[in-house]
Amino acid sequence: MQEISIYVHIPFCERKCNYCAFASFCGTQEQIENYIDVLCREIEKRKCDKLVKTIYIGGGTPSILNEEQIERIVKTIYQNFNVDKSAEFTIEANPNSITENLLKKWKELRVNRVSIGVQSLCDKSLKKIGRLHDKKTAIEKIKLTRKYFDNVSADLIVGLENETGKDLCKNAKALLELGIKHISCYLLEIYENTKIYQMIKMGQYRPLDDDTTIESFNKLANYLIDSGMERYEISNFCYPGYESKHNLNYWKRGEYLGFGLGAHSFENEERYYNLANFADYEQEKRKTEHLTDKEKIEEIIMLGLRCKIGVNLDKILSMGYDLQENEYYKDYIKQGILIEKDKNVYLNQTFYHISNTIISNLLP
Ligand SMILES: C[S@@+](CC[C@H](N)C(=O)[O-])C[C@H]1O[C@@H](n2cnc3c(N)ncnc32)[C@H](O)[C@@H]1O
After folding, report:
1. Residue 301 is part of a domain; what is its CATH number?
2. Which of 18, 198, 295, 297 is 20 to 30 A distant from 250 in Cα terms?
3. Is there a single domain that holds both residue 163 and residue 78?
Protein backbone atom coordinates (compact mmCIF):
# COMPACT_ATOMS: atom_id res chain seq x y z
CA MET A 1 0.00 0.00 0.00
CA GLN A 2 1.23 3.50 -0.81
CA GLU A 3 2.45 5.45 2.22
CA ILE A 4 2.04 9.13 3.08
CA SER A 5 2.69 11.67 5.85
CA ILE A 6 0.33 14.32 7.17
CA TYR A 7 1.27 17.83 8.31
CA VAL A 8 -1.28 20.08 10.02
CA HIS A 9 -0.52 23.77 10.48
CA ILE A 10 -1.83 25.66 13.51
CA PRO A 11 -0.99 29.33 12.83
CA PHE A 12 -1.77 30.71 16.29
CA CYS A 13 0.60 31.75 19.08
CA GLU A 14 0.13 33.34 22.48
CA ARG A 15 2.66 35.94 21.47
CA LYS A 16 4.77 36.43 18.35
CA CYS A 17 8.48 35.89 19.09
CA ASN A 18 10.81 38.73 18.13
CA TYR A 19 12.68 36.62 15.55
CA CYS A 20 9.66 34.89 14.04
CA ALA A 21 8.82 35.37 10.37
CA PHE A 22 6.47 32.37 10.11
CA ALA A 23 2.77 32.55 9.21
CA SER A 24 1.62 32.84 12.82
CA PHE A 25 -0.43 35.30 14.85
CA CYS A 26 -2.28 35.75 18.11
CA GLY A 27 -5.85 34.66 17.41
CA THR A 28 -9.03 35.14 19.40
CA GLN A 29 -10.96 32.03 20.51
CA GLU A 30 -13.50 32.83 17.81
CA GLN A 31 -10.83 32.93 15.10
CA ILE A 32 -9.35 29.68 16.39
CA GLU A 33 -12.74 27.93 16.35
CA ASN A 34 -13.45 29.24 12.87
CA TYR A 35 -10.03 28.07 11.66
CA ILE A 36 -10.62 24.59 13.04
CA ASP A 37 -13.94 24.40 11.16
CA VAL A 38 -12.21 25.22 7.86
CA LEU A 39 -9.29 22.93 8.64
CA CYS A 40 -11.52 19.94 9.43
CA ARG A 41 -13.49 20.52 6.25
CA GLU A 42 -10.23 20.52 4.29
CA ILE A 43 -9.11 17.27 5.94
CA GLU A 44 -12.45 15.61 5.09
CA LYS A 45 -12.36 16.79 1.49
CA ARG A 46 -8.84 15.61 0.83
CA LYS A 47 -9.17 12.14 2.31
CA CYS A 48 -7.41 9.28 0.59
CA ASP A 49 -6.74 5.62 1.34
CA LYS A 50 -2.93 5.72 1.46
CA LEU A 51 -1.36 4.42 4.66
CA VAL A 52 -0.44 7.33 6.95
CA LYS A 53 2.97 6.64 8.51
CA THR A 54 3.57 9.97 10.27
CA ILE A 55 1.48 12.89 11.51
CA TYR A 56 3.02 16.21 12.53
CA ILE A 57 0.98 19.02 14.06
CA GLY A 58 3.14 22.14 13.86
CA GLY A 59 2.84 25.87 13.98
CA GLY A 60 2.64 28.44 15.31
CA THR A 61 1.89 26.85 18.62
CA PRO A 62 -0.39 23.77 18.54
CA SER A 63 -0.24 23.55 22.34
CA ILE A 64 -2.46 26.63 22.64
CA LEU A 65 -5.38 24.50 21.40
CA ASN A 66 -7.48 23.20 24.28
CA GLU A 67 -8.36 19.51 24.73
CA GLU A 68 -11.62 19.73 22.83
CA GLN A 69 -10.05 21.62 19.90
CA ILE A 70 -7.14 19.26 19.37
CA GLU A 71 -9.45 16.27 19.73
CA ARG A 72 -11.72 17.59 16.98
CA ILE A 73 -8.78 17.88 14.56
CA VAL A 74 -7.22 14.52 15.38
CA LYS A 75 -10.53 12.65 15.27
CA THR A 76 -11.20 14.16 11.83
CA ILE A 77 -7.88 12.73 10.67
CA TYR A 78 -8.64 9.30 12.16
CA GLN A 79 -12.13 9.28 10.62
CA ASN A 80 -10.89 10.12 7.14
CA PHE A 81 -7.48 8.49 6.88
CA ASN A 82 -6.01 5.07 7.29
CA VAL A 83 -3.46 5.79 10.02
CA ASP A 84 -0.91 3.05 10.67
CA LYS A 85 -1.11 1.62 14.21
CA SER A 86 2.59 2.38 14.73
CA ALA A 87 2.54 5.82 13.06
CA GLU A 88 4.85 8.47 14.53
CA PHE A 89 2.63 11.30 15.77
CA THR A 90 4.35 14.55 16.78
CA ILE A 91 2.89 17.69 18.27
CA GLU A 92 4.80 20.97 18.66
CA ALA A 93 4.50 22.71 22.01
CA ASN A 94 5.66 25.81 23.82
CA PRO A 95 6.67 25.33 27.47
CA ASN A 96 4.26 28.03 28.56
CA SER A 97 1.10 26.34 27.29
CA ILE A 98 1.85 22.72 28.25
CA THR A 99 -0.55 21.45 30.94
CA GLU A 100 -1.03 18.04 32.52
CA ASN A 101 -4.57 17.79 31.10
CA LEU A 102 -3.30 18.54 27.59
CA LEU A 103 -0.57 15.92 27.91
CA LYS A 104 -3.17 13.35 28.98
CA LYS A 105 -5.39 14.26 26.03
CA TRP A 106 -2.48 14.01 23.56
CA LYS A 107 -1.62 10.58 24.93
CA GLU A 108 -5.24 9.47 24.59
CA LEU A 109 -5.20 10.68 20.95
CA ARG A 110 -2.12 8.48 20.27
CA VAL A 111 0.41 11.33 20.04
CA ASN A 112 3.78 9.70 20.76
CA ARG A 113 6.32 12.48 20.22
CA VAL A 114 6.41 16.04 21.59
CA SER A 115 8.66 18.75 20.16
CA ILE A 116 9.17 21.59 22.62
CA GLY A 117 10.32 25.07 21.57
CA VAL A 118 12.85 25.68 24.33
CA GLN A 119 15.18 27.94 22.25
CA SER A 120 17.45 28.69 25.22
CA LEU A 121 17.77 28.09 28.93
CA CYS A 122 19.29 31.52 29.62
CA ASP A 123 16.69 33.82 31.16
CA LYS A 124 18.21 36.99 29.70
CA SER A 125 18.15 35.51 26.18
CA LEU A 126 14.60 34.24 26.50
CA LYS A 127 13.37 37.64 27.60
CA LYS A 128 15.16 39.50 24.81
CA ILE A 129 13.76 37.26 22.06
CA GLY A 130 10.24 37.68 23.45
CA ARG A 131 9.58 34.19 24.79
CA LEU A 132 6.89 33.79 27.43
CA HIS A 133 8.78 31.15 29.43
CA ASP A 134 11.89 31.29 31.57
CA LYS A 135 14.41 28.57 32.38
CA LYS A 136 12.45 27.37 35.42
CA THR A 137 9.21 26.96 33.46
CA ALA A 138 11.00 25.21 30.59
CA ILE A 139 12.52 22.68 33.00
CA GLU A 140 9.25 22.11 34.87
CA LYS A 141 7.33 21.58 31.63
CA ILE A 142 9.92 19.24 30.16
CA LYS A 143 9.77 17.15 33.36
CA LEU A 144 5.98 17.08 33.14
CA THR A 145 6.05 16.11 29.46
CA ARG A 146 8.58 13.36 30.14
CA LYS A 147 6.15 11.90 32.70
CA TYR A 148 3.84 11.07 29.81
CA PHE A 149 6.15 10.82 26.78
CA ASP A 150 9.48 9.10 26.19
CA ASN A 151 10.14 10.66 22.79
CA VAL A 152 10.59 14.36 23.53
CA SER A 153 12.52 16.77 21.33
CA ALA A 154 13.72 20.32 22.06
CA ASP A 155 14.53 23.20 19.70
CA LEU A 156 17.53 25.42 20.44
CA ILE A 157 18.62 28.57 18.62
CA VAL A 158 22.32 29.28 18.05
CA GLY A 159 23.55 32.84 17.55
CA LEU A 160 21.60 34.58 20.30
CA GLU A 161 23.22 37.56 22.03
CA ASN A 162 25.94 36.57 24.51
CA GLU A 163 25.22 32.83 24.14
CA THR A 164 28.40 31.16 23.02
CA GLY A 165 29.45 27.50 22.86
CA LYS A 166 29.92 27.17 26.61
CA ASP A 167 26.37 28.35 27.38
CA LEU A 168 24.92 26.18 24.61
CA CYS A 169 26.67 23.07 25.96
CA LYS A 170 25.48 23.85 29.47
CA ASN A 171 21.91 24.17 28.19
CA ALA A 172 22.22 20.98 26.14
CA LYS A 173 23.56 19.13 29.20
CA ALA A 174 20.52 20.20 31.21
CA LEU A 175 18.21 19.02 28.41
CA LEU A 176 19.89 15.62 28.18
CA GLU A 177 19.69 15.22 31.96
CA LEU A 178 15.95 15.80 31.69
CA GLY A 179 15.71 12.88 29.25
CA ILE A 180 15.38 14.79 25.97
CA LYS A 181 16.04 12.33 23.11
CA HIS A 182 16.22 14.67 20.12
CA ILE A 183 17.55 18.23 19.71
CA SER A 184 17.05 20.54 16.73
CA CYS A 185 19.64 23.33 16.60
CA TYR A 186 18.79 26.25 14.37
CA LEU A 187 21.05 29.13 13.42
CA LEU A 188 19.37 32.44 14.26
CA GLU A 189 17.99 33.90 11.04
CA ILE A 190 17.19 37.59 10.93
CA TYR A 191 14.28 38.51 8.65
CA GLU A 192 13.42 42.10 7.72
CA ASN A 193 9.79 41.90 8.83
CA THR A 194 10.64 40.94 12.41
CA LYS A 195 10.96 42.86 15.65
CA ILE A 196 14.50 41.61 16.19
CA TYR A 197 15.55 43.19 12.88
CA GLN A 198 14.41 46.58 14.20
CA MET A 199 16.05 45.94 17.58
CA ILE A 200 19.36 45.23 15.85
CA LYS A 201 19.05 48.36 13.73
CA MET A 202 18.44 50.45 16.84
CA GLY A 203 21.37 48.89 18.70
CA GLN A 204 19.12 47.10 21.20
CA TYR A 205 20.16 43.59 20.20
CA ARG A 206 23.51 42.15 19.17
CA PRO A 207 23.41 38.59 17.82
CA LEU A 208 26.70 36.69 17.71
CA ASP A 209 28.88 37.46 14.68
CA ASP A 210 29.09 34.78 11.96
CA ASP A 211 32.42 33.28 13.03
CA THR A 212 31.43 33.03 16.70
CA THR A 213 28.08 31.53 15.67
CA ILE A 214 29.74 28.77 13.62
CA GLU A 215 32.31 28.13 16.34
CA SER A 216 29.52 27.92 18.96
CA PHE A 217 27.44 25.61 16.79
CA ASN A 218 30.41 23.29 16.27
CA LYS A 219 31.06 23.18 20.02
CA LEU A 220 27.44 22.29 20.65
CA ALA A 221 27.47 19.67 17.86
CA ASN A 222 30.61 18.04 19.26
CA TYR A 223 29.14 18.04 22.74
CA LEU A 224 25.96 16.30 21.58
CA ILE A 225 27.90 13.74 19.55
CA ASP A 226 30.22 13.06 22.50
CA SER A 227 27.09 12.51 24.59
CA GLY A 228 26.00 9.68 22.31
CA MET A 229 23.78 11.50 19.87
CA GLU A 230 24.03 11.26 16.11
CA ARG A 231 23.90 14.27 13.80
CA TYR A 232 21.48 12.77 11.33
CA GLU A 233 20.84 16.04 9.53
CA ILE A 234 22.63 19.39 9.52
CA SER A 235 20.40 20.82 12.26
CA ASN A 236 19.17 17.65 13.96
CA PHE A 237 20.68 15.41 16.62
CA CYS A 238 19.23 12.39 18.39
CA TYR A 239 19.99 9.20 20.28
CA PRO A 240 19.90 6.08 18.05
CA GLY A 241 16.35 5.23 17.00
CA TYR A 242 14.93 8.66 17.84
CA GLU A 243 15.20 10.24 14.38
CA SER A 244 12.09 12.17 13.37
CA LYS A 245 10.46 9.81 10.86
CA HIS A 246 8.33 12.69 9.64
CA ASN A 247 11.36 14.78 8.71
CA LEU A 248 13.18 11.79 7.22
CA ASN A 249 10.20 11.38 4.91
CA TYR A 250 10.64 14.99 3.69
CA TRP A 251 14.32 14.46 3.07
CA LYS A 252 13.71 11.20 1.20
CA ARG A 253 11.17 13.04 -0.93
CA GLY A 254 8.34 10.85 0.33
CA GLU A 255 4.77 11.99 -0.20
CA TYR A 256 2.95 14.22 2.29
CA LEU A 257 -0.30 16.13 2.60
CA GLY A 258 -0.23 19.53 4.31
CA PHE A 259 -3.46 20.81 5.82
CA GLY A 260 -4.02 24.35 7.04
CA LEU A 261 -2.94 27.87 6.25
CA GLY A 262 0.07 27.95 3.90
CA ALA A 263 0.67 24.21 4.29
CA HIS A 264 2.68 22.44 1.60
CA SER A 265 1.98 19.06 0.01
CA PHE A 266 3.99 16.74 -2.20
CA GLU A 267 2.24 14.04 -4.21
CA ASN A 268 2.95 12.33 -7.54
CA GLU A 269 6.14 14.42 -8.00
CA GLU A 270 4.10 17.60 -7.72
CA ARG A 271 4.47 20.26 -5.03
CA TYR A 272 1.46 22.39 -4.13
CA TYR A 273 0.52 24.60 -1.23
CA ASN A 274 -2.42 26.36 0.37
CA LEU A 275 -2.20 30.13 0.25
CA ALA A 276 -1.04 31.82 3.44
CA ASN A 277 -3.82 34.35 4.00
CA PHE A 278 -7.02 33.17 5.60
CA ALA A 279 -9.50 34.44 2.97
CA ASP A 280 -7.63 32.62 0.18
CA TYR A 281 -7.20 29.51 2.30
CA GLU A 282 -10.90 29.42 3.15
CA GLN A 283 -11.69 29.53 -0.58
CA GLU A 284 -9.38 26.54 -1.07
CA LYS A 285 -6.93 28.48 -3.23
CA ARG A 286 -3.76 26.51 -3.93
CA LYS A 287 -0.64 26.98 -5.99
CA THR A 288 1.12 24.17 -7.78
CA GLU A 289 4.76 23.92 -8.70
CA HIS A 290 5.57 21.49 -11.50
CA LEU A 291 9.14 20.36 -11.07
CA THR A 292 11.33 19.96 -14.13
CA ASP A 293 13.72 16.97 -14.23
CA LYS A 294 16.58 19.35 -13.44
CA GLU A 295 14.75 20.65 -10.36
CA LYS A 296 14.03 17.10 -9.21
CA ILE A 297 17.74 16.23 -9.42
CA GLU A 298 18.59 19.44 -7.53
CA GLU A 299 16.17 18.50 -4.76
CA ILE A 300 17.60 14.99 -4.46
CA ILE A 301 21.13 16.39 -4.11
CA MET A 302 20.20 19.21 -1.72
CA LEU A 303 18.06 17.10 0.59
CA GLY A 304 20.28 14.00 0.48
CA LEU A 305 23.58 15.74 1.23
CA ARG A 306 22.14 17.63 4.19
CA CYS A 307 21.38 14.40 6.03
CA LYS A 308 22.67 10.92 6.62
CA ILE A 309 20.60 9.48 3.76
CA GLY A 310 23.12 10.75 1.21
CA VAL A 311 22.57 10.68 -2.57
CA ASN A 312 22.25 7.56 -4.69
CA LEU A 313 24.50 8.11 -7.71
CA ASP A 314 22.69 5.53 -9.90
CA LYS A 315 19.37 7.18 -9.25
CA ILE A 316 20.45 10.58 -10.51
CA LEU A 317 22.42 8.97 -13.35
CA SER A 318 19.20 7.30 -14.48
CA MET A 319 17.63 10.77 -14.44
CA GLY A 320 20.36 12.02 -16.80
CA TYR A 321 22.92 13.59 -14.43
CA ASP A 322 26.36 12.06 -13.97
CA LEU A 323 27.50 13.71 -10.73
CA GLN A 324 30.83 11.88 -10.84
CA GLU A 325 31.72 13.90 -13.96
CA ASN A 326 31.31 17.23 -12.12
CA GLU A 327 34.77 18.86 -11.64
CA TYR A 328 34.00 20.06 -8.09
CA TYR A 329 32.77 16.58 -7.22
CA LYS A 330 36.07 14.98 -8.18
CA ASP A 331 37.93 17.56 -6.13
CA TYR A 332 35.65 17.17 -3.09
CA ILE A 333 36.14 13.38 -3.17
CA LYS A 334 39.94 13.85 -3.29
CA GLN A 335 39.82 16.25 -0.32
CA GLY A 336 37.54 14.00 1.72
CA ILE A 337 34.74 16.57 1.72
CA LEU A 338 32.46 14.06 0.00
CA ILE A 339 32.55 10.35 0.82
CA GLU A 340 31.47 7.63 -1.61
CA LYS A 341 30.17 4.35 -0.25
CA ASP A 342 28.28 1.62 -2.14
CA LYS A 343 27.11 3.89 -4.95
CA ASN A 344 25.95 6.51 -2.45
CA VAL A 345 27.66 9.80 -1.72
CA TYR A 346 27.61 11.60 1.62
CA LEU A 347 28.80 14.99 2.82
CA ASN A 348 31.54 14.68 5.46
CA GLN A 349 29.97 16.16 8.61
CA THR A 350 33.07 18.28 9.32
CA PHE A 351 32.01 20.40 6.34
CA TYR A 352 28.32 20.76 7.20
CA HIS A 353 28.81 24.46 8.01
CA ILE A 354 29.77 25.19 4.36
CA SER A 355 27.20 22.82 2.88
CA ASN A 356 25.44 25.57 0.91
CA THR A 357 28.53 26.39 -1.14
CA ILE A 358 29.43 22.73 -1.67
CA ILE A 359 25.91 21.77 -2.72
CA SER A 360 25.53 24.70 -5.11
CA ASN A 361 28.74 23.63 -6.88
CA LEU A 362 27.35 20.15 -7.41
CA LEU A 363 24.00 21.02 -8.98
CA PRO A 364 23.42 20.28 -12.68
C1 LIG B 1 7.88 26.85 13.28
S2 LIG B 1 8.74 27.27 14.71
C3 LIG B 1 7.45 27.03 15.89
C4 LIG B 1 7.78 26.37 17.20
C5 LIG B 1 7.05 26.81 18.47
N6 LIG B 1 5.83 27.48 18.27
C7 LIG B 1 7.92 27.70 19.33
O8 LIG B 1 7.87 28.91 19.16
O9 LIG B 1 8.63 27.20 20.14
C10 LIG B 1 9.85 25.95 14.85
C11 LIG B 1 11.21 26.34 15.30
O12 LIG B 1 11.87 27.11 14.35
C13 LIG B 1 12.90 27.86 14.98
N14 LIG B 1 12.89 29.23 14.45
C15 LIG B 1 11.82 29.98 14.15
N16 LIG B 1 12.21 31.18 13.67
C17 LIG B 1 13.56 31.19 13.65
C18 LIG B 1 14.58 32.14 13.27
N19 LIG B 1 14.27 33.35 12.80
N20 LIG B 1 15.87 31.77 13.38
C21 LIG B 1 16.20 30.56 13.85
N22 LIG B 1 15.31 29.64 14.23
C23 LIG B 1 14.01 29.94 14.15
C24 LIG B 1 12.62 27.82 16.47
O25 LIG B 1 13.62 27.04 17.11
C26 LIG B 1 11.27 27.16 16.56
O27 LIG B 1 11.12 26.37 17.70
Report:
1. 1.10.10
2. 18
3. yes
